[in-house]
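Its record is set out here:
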Amino acid sequence: MEASNQLAQIREIIDEFSDINISTLVYMLQLLDVLPQNVNLSSGSPEMKALQDLLKVFNATKGLIEPLINISFVYGSKDYPASITFEGTLREGRELGVRKYYLHDETVDSKVTQILDENPPIDDNVKEWSLSDEPRYWTLSCPYNYSTRIHGTVNVTVYLNYSDILDLLYGLSPEALLSLNYNVKAALIDVDENGNSKEFASNVTMVSSLSLSSLLSGGLNVPTTIQIKDVNHAMEAGHSLRFGLSIVNRSLNLPSINITIFNFTLSDIIYLLNLFNISLSLPGSLLGEMPVLMYDSVDSPSNIELNLAPLDDIKLSLAKGIKRDQLITKAGKAFFNVTVKNTGLKDDTVKVIVTPVDPVTTITPSGWNVSLTGVDSTGVINEFGYKRTYGVLLLPASSSRDVGITITPPRNVDYGDGVDVTIEAKGNRGYDEVSGSVTVSSDVVKIGIDLIKPADREARIGRSFNYTFKIVNTGNEVDSFHVNVKSDHDWANDSDVSPVPPIEVMPGEEKEFNVTVSIPSNVAAGTEDFLIVTVSSGVDPSKQRKTGVVTTAVSPSLTQMIGEGFDSFASQLGLNSVLGSSAGTFLMGFFFVVVIIFVVIAIYLWRKRFALLICLDRIKEVEPGEKTSFEVTLKNPTNQRLTYDLRVANEVSLPEGWHVSLSEREVKLDPDEEKRILLSVEASPDVDPDGYAEIKVEAVPREKPKAERISLIAMVKGAKVDLYISNVFHWPKTFKGGDVITTRFAVHNRGNVKAKGLSVKLAVNGVEKNRVENISIPPKGYANVRIPWVASPGENSVTITVEK
């Protein structure tokens, strides 16, 4: 296959003419873009003179030039496999910006389909389609291989032919006085991989047929522009764009000719019909034929023009109340809280990238750190002088997430230093960014000092000690504090401060420092010294805090004298030569260790057990008049034979009604030998119904007079006191107010234990007249009671009450 080119055209010119003239030479040079189109070729001009000289040379060397330009470009065959080779990396190229898609017909296997592509028509073979209410569609020849966004205004340019209208006008029909309005709908449609389509934007535009005057003045192939405004649609990867065109309806457009019917113009009549919602039905012949769409030709390049842009589903904004430009202290931090939103209908993985740069050098200055919270993972990218800190987060469709960003300056930062901050949100479905700045400024510095002092103290004459103070930085800036010390008796000065000032303290933190006070040996006991400590800010020396402590010189205490005694004794033993000044302390420590060892041995011997008393059931119940027994095991835990005396330690002090006895009073046991002993317990009817007895059993080894004791509990079960009154008798039976009456009755105890400490009360008409105290009634027994009382005038209602 041979391709024509500019050299081939020049070759044809040379073959046609034996010699080249000046006009032919100018044409060839302009064809090769060597000679500008507007060159001065007037006679006598320098340009013309140079061309004439060149023509002579060309004609003289024509025989040499012809073989050079007799070149053909051959490719596309087995013998001539022309190709292009390049080195590099291929990346996906995304189409962005304005795109123009032309309407074409494509024939494949004798089947004609309507397509859209970016290739303009190259021939005059026009395609025609008569518009109708049945839309025709043109589909983009290749689906988008990436997700993109159509936005802004889409301009549709269609070439319409009104030839049928022209025939009507040439026929001088009544319609010639009218023009036709067509409501043309242009629609944009999204087609997915499965062929499912969805219209996402459209516009209906009214176009008018040619009037008589316009037909007389121009042609029939009229370009019409339809605008679809405010388009914002995401085309997913693999989806195709489809364009649809149709007629929605058509109507008459009244001319300027004034036709009156009963003083009403035709325009007035049409307006009144529309006002009262009355439709005007006109014959189809009067409405004319549909216009014809002309496309896919050089003269009729119908097309749609649109703007492609990246997806913008991802939005980034600063949280409410967050300033873009922030001032901080040297020790401060800048906080940028941002909200990342996914406004689209698909999930996306978004990378939030924070880049601080120096506004002068435009690179990231050393020491500035960025940290992020609220993300799934973080990382750092260092390239081309930039340090980009990023966080990755998965953002579901139609959701948002808050991300916290903290920017910290370096320790050696100065006032006036700062960075410009760019915060980016990058996702597969969009990009957004916000910017700000961070400046270290003294305008926001606040100085605050708090000084915590120790307690006043007494100190021994001739000795030194340390006071420990605390500096608290209550400001918002790192500060280096200076310390000044003043003593009434010069027991301390500035050189006695450690660590050596200035002392650097971060905001909100505290640090300790010591002041060494030395008391001379020649001062009198009871001498007081007032120590004043002043701490001042290194940032603002006028900010100070003072405090003071009182030191009282005292004579040596008993403890001190003991310590000195050990020091003297250690010196006599010669320990100072080995242990130095700590010899006395070592000797005193050794002494106390020996004492502690003896104490431990004594405690061990005191706590050592020579007998074990074991009872698995230490609490038992017993009914009145019944007995129970405890099984106690006595064991010899020592490594020698022992003789034990057994007894109840509190036998004489047991509560009333309880009686105990041991099966053994003396037991001999070999090492680790044991023996079971029975303790019998009897509860007589005299026991307290709600009482119990704690029985303490002791085993005392005769060889080691250290007793082992175990406590057992016996509780009363089923004990009750059941009282009732019988045989009540009053004498005399007849009486008057003021007479002494004697009431006799019996109080019975139907219970199984003795009723003790009873009180019998007699009341007349609710008023107590007499009582009898401290009555005891054995079980199944009774007590006869006689109570005298003075009668009251009138009726006497007697009540007898027995209570414990």
About this structure: The longest strand covers residues 221-235. The chain has eleven helices and 49 strands. Confidence is low (pLDDT under 50) at residues 164-177, 211-219, 256-262.
